[in-house]
Design a protein that fits this description.
This protein is an alpha/beta fold and 268 residues long. It is built from ten helices and eleven strands. Strand 5 and strand 6 form a beta hairpin.
Length: 268
């Protein structure tokens, strides 16, 4: 298991980016709004879709430009349907996509440090990757059980980090003066389809909510884009629309905080 070194450099601001399937494009919209308000990260922690959005920004891309990498792609371009022995799909195509489009190959070489949280499926605990192959570790963090086949790295199988920690504030809390948490699974009612995939996704959403309560409380700034439940996990073509929703919510939230409190940050 890879652990975060608690003696490493102290950062002024860190971002904690939650999971959320295709809703991860909203992370990029929120980040765009944060940067426009000079809230820039020295380090990023990401889970699943948050790790995916975070790695493209940490690799040196402007948030709005990241959309270009996904434009024209569909869900089936990044996944491979398999005979369902351990999952419906494999993520080998996502790994190839990441390797082809990221300049940086290993986490420890990223211009902005990125901690990627996955779940060790063999031993039942969270793992916080901060070194090793970017593509494999981000894919492992995205590997939702049943939907995707667990990803084996070394001798260990990994699945989605959101199973145990969907909002990764804790891995950077002691490393940062301020932590911005972007949660794409807020507490809101949502519609769902009464089929096997719909039931599975709704169950995961409840799980994500439950394990995020403590993390929400210890963040210095919490932004939760809403009305994203209408987007199914396969709708990559809705990326621009989801980006704009994240951007709009973040702009409104930051403006309201500044007007009402004179600061973006929670009182100490």
């Amino acid at each position: 298991m890879e652990r975060v070194n608690s003696t490493s450099k102290h950062y002024s601001i860190g971002y904690a980016l939650s999971g959320g399937f295709v809703k991860g494009f909203a992370h990029l919209g929120v980040i765009q709004a944060l940067l426009e308000n000079d809230i820039k990260p020295g380090i990023i922690a990401g889970v699943s879709a948050g790790a995916l959005a975070g790695v493209f920004y940490a690799d040196g891309n402007e948030p709005y430009k990241v959309l270009d990498f996904f434009r024209g792609h569909k869900f089936q371009d990044l996944t491979k349907l398999v005979i369902p022995r351990m999952g419906l799909f494999e993520l080998c195509d996502l790994i190839d996509f990441l390797k082809s489009n990221l300049k940086t190959k290993n986490l420890e070489e990223l211009p902005i440090p990125l901690i990627v949280t996955a779940t060790d499926f063999d031993h039942g605990h969270s793992v916080h990757f901060h070194k090793g192959s970017v593509a494999e570790r981000v894919a492992a963090s995205c590997c939702m059980p049943v939907i995707f086949k667990p990803l084996k790295i070394g001798n260990t199988h990994y699945v989605d980090g959101g199973i145990l920690m969907n909002l990764p504030v804790h891995p950077i809390r002691q490393k940062c003066e301020k932590v911005v948490a972007i949660n794409l699974c807020p507490l809101e009612a949502e519609r769902f389809k009464m089929n096997i995939l719909g039931v599975a996704l709704r169950s995961y959403h409840f799980m994500f909510r439950a394990n995020s309560f403590a993390a929400r409380e210890i963040a210095d700034l919490l932004i939760e884009p809403y009305n994203l439940s209408q987007y199914s996990m396969t709708k990559l073509e809705k990326g621009d629309e989801i980006f704009e929703m994240g951007y709009k919510v973040a702009k409104e939230s930051l403006l309201k905080l500044k007007d009402e409190k004179g600061t973006f940050w929670k009182a100490s």
